Amino acid sequence: MPKAKKNLFERFANWATNATGSSTAFIVAFAIIIVWGITGPIFGYSDTWQLVINTGTTIVTFLMVFLIQKTQNKDSKAIHLKLNELIASHQGASNRMVDIEDLNEEELDKLHKFYEQLSDLAEKEDDILCTHSIDAANDNHNAKLELNKHSRKHKK
């Protein structure tokens, strides 16, 4: 798939994310704080002196929130697509897991409980390579229910 040309903001966001996440950026920020602290006695620890650092850090923080969110959204989308590809390409995987991020919290909690049950089942298996999927677990469960119904009929 050919890469689409990135717009100006996306190029800037990628550059700024890389730049602000570097060791150099941390050292520069740390140096600014040190210089600001050293200048405290010169300015008599005045309200203006405090306002300079408060305003500066507030502006940087405000802008970084949006920058970080943009980067996280992009990374999250890429990870979801990679996971969807793995699910879709694996014959034994349940395709119902693709796009589960659109489920509400209650539905996600139900799935989480189901996977806890699968984990418990897997711990009881002698074979560490034995796997379960949602569909396989449902098929096993339904088969057991049918077997139980059948055995109850024969006991009567």
Automatic annotation (TrEMBL):
Pfam families: Iron_permease
Keyword Transmembrane helix: yes
Transmembrane segments annotated in the record for this chain: 12-36, 48-68
Top-level taxon: Bacteria
Alphabetized InterPro entries for the sequence: Iron_permease_Fet4
Keyword annotations of the record: Membrane, Transmembrane, Transmembrane helix
Record's protein name: Low affinity iron permease family protein
